[in-house]
Each structure stands twice: as C-alpha cells, then as structure tokens.
Design brief:
Elements lengths: L1 H8 L11 E5 L2 E5 L16 E5 L7 E2 L12 E3 L7 E2 L13 E3 L10 H5 L4 E3 L5 E2 L2 H9 L1 E2 L9 E3 L10 H6 L4 H43 L9
Parallel strand pairs: 2-3, 3-5, 4-6, 5-7, 7-8, 8-10, 9-11
Antiparallel strand pairs: 1-2
Helix pairs in contact: 3-5
Membrane topology: Single-pass membrane protein
Main location: membrane
Family: Belongs to the LRRC3 family.
C-alpha cells in the first residue's frame, strides 16, 4: 500500500528521459540532453520543462506536435543536429510561450514558413545549407532572428548561380526578390494555361464553322435536290 501511495504522490511529468539530466533552479525545470546520440526527440520529457537542450545529437526531423504537451517551454536548443525536415505543425502548442529556438548547424535546406512565422521566439538559423527561395525570404523579413547570426544565413543553392555562397541578407540588399520570381513563374503558367484554353476554343469554332459549311454545300448540290413529279 505504501508503494502504491508513493506512485500516486509522484507528480505527473516529473520523470526524466533516459540519457538526459533534469535540473531545477528557482522553480524552472531544465532538461539537458546534449551530446547523447539521440536520433529523435524524447517522448517522456517532463511537462513542466522550461529549458530543453537537445543540441549535438543526431536528430533528423521535427515532427508535428513534437512539443505540444510542453506548455511551459520557453527555450529549445536543437543546434548541431542532422535535422533535414521540419513539419508545418512542429511547434504547435508552444508558439505563444517560446522565447528562443536554436536551429543552427543542421542540414535544413527549406522550411515551411508557417512553422516559424507563428513563433514569437528569437530564431537562430545560421550554418544550414539553405536553398534561397521565397519562403526563406519571408522568414528573414517577418520572423524574429538573432541579430548576431542573421548574416550567417547563406545561400547554399539558389535560382541564380551568382547568389550561391552569399549571405541571404546581402543578396536581398542587392535588390534580389525571390518572391517576385515565384510570382512571375505563376503568371507565366497562368498565361500558358489561358492561351491553351483560348486555342482550344478557336479550334472548336473553326471546326464548327467548317462542319456547317460542309453540310450547307452538300444540301446545295443538284443531286441533293428532290426531283419534280
């Protein structure tokens, strides 16, 4: 009975993930899982954690709702992992309270802008092999980026070779606009589609006119007239 009573008295979310260290200072809990060869985000993180350090591991993906149950979370350090994919709803549930998010030193080429623009956190995105595109440009202009690392967001690939290897901020300051490139592409695609429909309509009208003329010509031939009695 004492054993079961002890189990009931343990507060929910007070356990610590294996290979991690849980500490508490001034009522704020920190979960430290740095350099533990983790390949995914632990499932049993205490619900009252405020600081979560997952840096220097082998995590490759941040799935949807990865931190949803951590309503007190204010700081996440995911730097120096192998992250390649971040789902649109990766930070759902912690967007309002999160103050700092470090994604530097990963393998991120692109990221859904919805995943970051919903955050109020200060972001560190440096030292990733970014593909410079409209979504990344919108994140740069609209999100809260760490001013000390923003210049290290470099174009690993880009629509134009001259941008490769240059800081994104420098490229944009020079007058480039990746969003207008996408808009022009969409406009061209729309024009091509409209031209295709117009060509089909013209072809139909021409065929219809020719068909009517052919019918009229056949009816006007002498052999097609009824003989008089």
């Amino acid at each position: 009975q004492a054993f079961f009573c002890l189990l009931l008295c343990i507060p929910r979310g007070s356990s610590c993930p294996p290979s991690c260290q849980c500490t508490e200072r001034a009522g704020a809990k920190a979960v430290l899982c740095s350099s533990q060869h983790l390949e995914e985000i632990p499932k049993d993180i205490p619900r009252d954690v405020v600081l979560l350090k997952l840096d220097a591991n082998s995590i490759t993906r941040i799935p949807s709702n990865a931190f949803r149950h951590l309503s007190h979370l204010e700081e996440i350090d995911l730097s120096r992992n192998a992250i390649e994919q971040i789902d649109r709803a990766a930070f759902r549930g912690v967007a309002a309270g999160l103050r700092s998010l470090d994604l530097s030193g990963n393998r991120i080429r692109s990221i859904p802008k919805e995943a970051l623009l919903a955050l109020n956190a200060e972001l560190r995105l440096a030292n990733n092999p970014w593909h410079c595109e409209c979504a990344l440009q919108e994140v740069l202009w609209e999100a809260r980026l760490d001013p000390d690392s923003v210049r290290d967001i470099t174009c690993h690939t880009a629509p134009r070779q001259e941008f490769v290897g240059k800081p994104l901020l420098q490229v944009l300051d020079a007058g480039a606009n990746f969003c207008s490139v996408r808009q022009r592409t969409m406009d061209v695609a729309m024009l091509v589609t409209m031209f295709g429909w117009f060509a089909m309509l013209v072809t139909y009208v021409i065929c219809y006119v020719r068909h009517n003329r052919e019918r009229s010509r056949r009816h006007s031939l002498p052999g097609a007239q009824p003989r008089a009695e």
